[in-house]
Design goal:
Elements: E1 6-12, E2 14-16, E3 22-25, E4 28-31, E5 38-40, H1 42-56, E6 60-67, H2 73-82, E7 86-90, H3 100-114, E8 118-122, E9 124-125, E10 129-130, H4 133-140, E11 144-155, E12 158-164, E13 170-176, E14 179-183, H5 195-201, E15 207-209, H6 211-214, H7 252-260, H8 276-289
Parallel strand pairs: 1-6, 1-8, 6-7, 7-15, 8-14, 11-14
Antiparallel strand pairs: 2-5, 3-4, 9-10, 11-12, 12-13
């Protein structure tokens, strides 16, 4: 009797490319005006590589899932070209604007439908830091979850995980299947797909799931299902001033004021203690000398 293969679910997410948006032109390189580029999260690709190694060993089937708009189909087709057997994109307009709680509702439903033996994804997003939604969904589904995984080895119904600990230490953990594993970036080089596989993946059919396929109400996902309201934010200064190190010979209070000023030097002003008519006359003279008054028409 043939041994049952593991069903592995790999979560793929998109992030902003930290490199400058450069394009090649006739006179050299220049900054393009289409905004930041997006790419597949590198840690998620390393998680996919872990899954594909188990597939190459003949013990697993790999399904790649992404939640997002049509642009994520590029990431899913890359997964197919690398060796995944199935690719699913989940999207509906109401999914926009959600937080980790709303995302956990969504991923929990995906876990319940696909019932994977192993969930693999990146431990962190390249541009946004940690994303707790996959781990929260695993907890809701009563799945064990291990973060910062460097390598994994499946043995029967167990998976042996080497994870990164504090201060460069290493920990070896044994988890029971099914479970979720969050893979650390920078420790496994994802494979480069062959040209024939890339061409084939461009024409392969992708599954598209909506809320009706997940049987989820709108008020549990997206902005309606978020636990935190979106707040206002301010953009940073376009040209911040560099603060110099205060003179150590100054008193502590003056050094603190120099740091809080952000490098902006105070301007000397003048105090006028004159009658109102003379104050107005003095101000007009200042405005005239500074060129702030319109020239009189002759």
């Amino acid at each position: 009797m043939a041994e049952k293969k593991l069903d592995i679910l790999v979560i793929l997410r998109e992030c902003s490319d930290p490199r400058p948006p450069v394009r090649l032109m006739a006179k050299g390189a220049g900054i393009r005006d289409r905004g930041l580029r997006c790419l597949t999260n590198p840690a998620d690709l390393e998680a996919l590589e872990h899954a594909l190694e188990l597939r190459d060993a003949g013990v697993a089937r790999v399904t790649a899932v992404a939640v997002g708009p049509k642009s994520l189909e590029d990431s899913l087709r890359l997964a197919l070209a690398m060796g995944a057997e199935r690719a699913i994109r989940v999207w509906n307009g109401v999914l926009a604007g959600g937080d980790a709680v709303a995302g956990a509702h969504l991923w929990q439903r995906v876990y319940a439908i696909l019932r994977p033996d192993l969930v693999l994804t990146g431990n962190r997003l390249l541009d946004g830091g940690s994303d707790p939604a996959p781990a929260l969904a695993a907890a809701r589904q009563d799945l064990g979850c291990v973060s910062a995984a460097l390598s994994l080895l499946v043995k029967d119904q167990e998976v042996e995980i080497l994870r990164k600990g504090d201060r460069g230490s290493r920990q070896k953990i044994v988890a029971q299947l099914p479970c979720a594993i969050l893979c650390e970036a920078g420790f496994k080089e994802p494979r480069y797909p062959a040209l024939e596989a890339v061409v084939t993946a461009t024409t392969q059919a992708l599954e598209t799931w909506g809320l009706e396929d997940l049987s989820l109400p709108e008020w549990e996902v997206g902005a309606l299902g978020a636990a935190l309201d979106q707040g206002e934010f301010a953009t940073p200064r376009p040209d911040p001033l560099r603060s110099t190190t205060p003179d150590p010979s100054l008193p502590a209070f003056e050094r603190i004021l120099a740091l809080l000023s952000g490098g902006i030097q105070p301007r000397e002003g003048k105090m006028h203690f004159l009658p109102p008519d003379e104050v107005v006359e003095s101000l007009m003279e200042i405005f005239q000398s500074e060129g702030l008054l319109p020239e009189a028409k002759t």
